Amino acid sequence: MSTGTRPALTRIVRNIPRVAVAAVAAFALTACGGGAEKTESKPSEGASAKSAAFPVTIEHKYGSTTIDAEPKKVVTLGLSDQDAVLALGVKPVGSVDWFKEKPYGKWPWAKELWGSTPPQIVGERDEYNMEKIAALKPDLIVAQYSGMKKEQYETLSKIAKVVAQPKGHEDYQAPWQDMTKQIGKALGKDAETEKLIAGIDARFKAVRDKHPEWKGKTVTVGEPYEPGKFSAFSPKDPKVIFLSEMGFTTSETYRKALGKENIADLSSERLDVMEADRTVWLGTPETEKAMKADPLYKKTKVHQEKRDLFLPYDSPDIGAALSFNTVLSIPYAIDQVVPMLEAIK
């Protein structure tokens, strides 16, 4: 078994060649975005509220960051960070490319919010082009659902204020609520953030109320990526969290197999790990076909009793929505996944 704390959209990520980190600019840049200018006119209520939100201090994996004024130019470096920023009415000027489809590409839950003003691509996955980031002159850099290293944080902190991964969580394992709150606080939009989170919580509650029979049922989530091999995702992975908020839980066997890792690569001989009341697989038509043809998978109870569910990463973008698990993608995922779960008796 091999394990690792890498992000969760493995089918796409596995096939992306790593990009060398661009050379860091030789000079240090200070964060942009000073305080608002004083004026004789009476500020609007909205402007007063925004001004009152700052300064704010946010604790994170590498310490704490104090933001003195409302950020105007934001760069996001996490897999899904841009979603929360967009949902709060701010378009990032820079973002990273995780899928070779550009972060603002086809995802239906965010496409309209991007409109005709896409961000500058400033890196690929957890490797950032520091010169491009510096050239954008951001006053805030967000890296929540990321694997940003301390050295990268220190370099980025010379360019702008940086809000790194949430404190107390392994990389890629912080709850979506925590990441959304960190982003909302950094933008001075606590009230709007709480409303967004409350709206999502209400959607999940509606699902639980409609399906009390799902409470306590076990679930596992995996991805076949080549014949005889698959990945299993941590109980703290966004996809598993999504299902947990509908009432599902994970077994001790599953939790033990994953440990503290975000993902475990296993062979078909360990398909026992995936036995559950519901087993959810993400992938492509090809990987689904290969898994269903696997002699060892044919012997699993979950397959024999037709309690498994194969979800596509794209067309429609269900797997991607579960992997993002953000305030924008969750409603889309609920609309897509719930009917499929309801079809399993």
Structure, explained:
- The protein is of the alpha/beta class.
- The chain has helices spanning 10-14, 45-52, 81-87, 111-114, 130-135, 150-156, 176-186, 190-210, 238-244, 252-258, 285-293, 295-298, 301-304, 318-324, 329-342; strands at residues 2-4, 56-60, 63-67, 74-76, 94-97, 120-124, 127-128, 140-142, 161-163, 219-226, 229-233, 263-267, 278-283, 308-312.
- A six-stranded mixed β-sheet has the order 1-12-11-10-13-14, with helices on both faces. A three-stranded parallel β-sheet has the order 4-8-9, with helices on one face.
- The longest helix has 21 residues, at 190-210.
- The radius of gyration is 21 Å and the shape is globular.
Question: Could you give the topology of this structure?
Answer:
Blueprint: E1 2-4, H1 10-14, H2 45-52, E2 56-60, E3 63-67, E4 74-76, H3 81-87, E5 94-97, H4 111-114, E6 120-124, E7 127-128, H5 130-135, E8 140-142, H6 150-156, E9 161-163, H7 176-186, H8 190-210, E10 219-226, E11 229-233, H9 238-244, H10 252-258, E12 263-267, E13 278-283, H11 285-293, H12 295-298, H13 301-304, E14 308-312, H14 318-324, H15 329-342
Parallel strand pairs: 4-8, 5-6, 8-9, 10-13, 13-14
Antiparallel strand pairs: 1-12, 2-3, 6-7, 10-11, 11-12
Helix pairs in contact: 7-8, 8-15, 9-14, 14-15
